[in-house]
Amino acid sequence: MADHIAVRTLPLTGFHGGSSAVRLEAAAPAERISLRVRAEDVAALSGPLGIDLPVKPKTSSSGNGRTALWLGPDEWLVIAEGGSDVGNSLMQAAKNSGALHSAADVSHRNTAILVSGPGAAAAINAGCPQDLSLKAFPVGACSRTVLGKVEIVLLRTAEEAFRVEVWRSFSDYAFGLLAEGAQDAAV
Question: Please, which residues bridge with residue 161 across strands?
C-alpha cells in the first residue's frame, strides 16, 4: 500500500490579472489564526506570540514575519508568512501563554489577493465602499468590509498596496471583481 500525501491546491493557482495601473497576484501561502482575548489578557498573549496585538480600531502591527490585524475590541486575525510550522507555533504560543483566549486555525479557510500599483485603491473601490484615501485609511490600516457580495479583511501594506483576505470559497469571485476594477482603474 503506497503512502499518499494529500496536497491542497491553492485556490488562486493560475489566476492572473491587472492592468497598466494595477497588479493583482495571489499571496503566498500563510498560516492564520482567528484570535479572541479579553483586553486585560492582550499583553500576556502578545509576548508569546512574538507580536504586539494592536488595541486601537483599524490598526495592525507587524514583526517576526507575522501581522496582527485588529478586527474588534476582543478580536484579531494573526497572519504568519511561511510554512505550516509557523502557524503551528502561533497556536502553540497562544496555548502556552496562560491567558484566557480562543484561537482557531483558519489557514485553509482564507486566502489573500495582493493588489498594488497607482490604481490599487480605485480597483478595490470598484466593489468596496471603504474610504481608501491615505488620510482615512493610512498604511497599516485594516478593516473588515465587503467587496461586492463577500466579506473581506482589507489591510493597506504600502501607499499603493493592499492585502485582501477572503474566504477561499469566494476567492475566484473576489479576484474577478478586482480584475474588472483594475481594468477600469487603467482608463
Answer: 116, 158
